[in-house]
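Quarterly update from the structural biology core.
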Amino acid sequence: IRDSTNMGAKAPLNLSRIKQLATMPSEDKIYNARHLLPVMARVFIRTFGCSVNLSESEVMAGLLSKAGHTLVKGPANADLMLLNVCTVKGEAKAIREIMSLRRRFPVLPLLVAGCITPELVRACPGESFLSTHSISFVVRAVEGALQGRRMDIREVGSLVKINLPRQRKNCVVGVVPISSGCNNSCTYCSVRAVKGSLFSYRMDDVLREIKNALSSGCSEIWLTSQDTAAYGTDRQKKSLLPELISEAAALRGSFMIRVGMMGPKTAYPVLDELVSAFSCRKVFKFIHLPVQSGSPRVLGLMGRGYSPGMFTDIVDAFRRALPRITLSTDIICGFPTETDAEFMESMELVKRVQPGVLNISRFQARPGTAAERMLQIHGRVSKERSRKLTALFRRLAMVWNMQWVGWRGSILIDEKGKDNTLVGRNDFYRPVIVKGNAQPGQRVRVKITGATSHDLRGEIIRN
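Predicted structure, tokenized:
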């Protein structure tokens, strides 16, 4: 019986469960022995995608640990691989990762979790799947896959995925989802099809998750969702995000809050309240506000529900109140029918707002979306536009970051970097690379001595 678990002496016998074998037909004994004994497995988890995916991987790791399984750092030491994928921009990357792991470890069970699409399942018919809606069933999925069964658990879990056991990737950072799904109808996006409609978690539950993170030693709280500014709009007309930020900032303790991506369409109606909430001392002066295009016509084709002018109004309002606030935004290059002149509108918008972070992507048609049926632009064109926009941003970012040289202030160390360095964030969420003996979660004073287009370089000082 012990050998049937394929885990040798590492799997302790559960005598009360084994006694059940006595009442079973003889032909069922061997099969059921595998199910009645605990399988104490070593599981390797790799995560791709947004901070919501990161949070769900932490929850799955917590549930597996609670069930007695062990998390390991590499697939070579694992009994099962769990790949938490993102398919928002297409299945190609996820399929490549699955195939790569399968080639390297042809016998090892593989469970694919995350934003599972029918296209992904068809492309990898032999693998096991666990959808983003079903992460509470991760123990069942893992143990079934270990027993040689092909697991396919989708669309059966709870929409509430907070206040569950969690094993954090970074003990300093508490990733707190505030909702699931999306109510927008962007013509190029598959998030709503995969994640479902917007479902906001009760504010009391979110605050309880934040308190749990703080009590476990976190000094950064990330409020995250597909659109944080949409929080509460599934229950009322106006966003509850400003109230949530203020309630979270009022909690006791020394910590900072990072507010995740806000859609301009949902942020605009509560702009004044948001600016006030971001003025709280415990809130990073950082906004992620994806514009996607500087062309009014292209934004209309995208179904984004706002104009470039609305976007700049939001940026201007934040900068009037918080002049050095860090803006992160997103641009899609080569959206169907985008002309050279309309791409230049995006270039001019980037020059106008000078973001500190710019996420650039080339358009890829998602199956089943309205944009897939539009007139596509050749890949060479979108690649060249992406190259031009990247070059522009690097020049602007270098100028923006050099303005910080000479600045003195406090940063919060949140991780260890390469070559014995530490990575911290100032109150404007600018990454600062330093060397020293500080530990993650600690605040230190620094002087900025240099900059790149991606980060600031500094040294720890005493005053």
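The CA atoms of residues 219 and 255 lie 4 Å apart.
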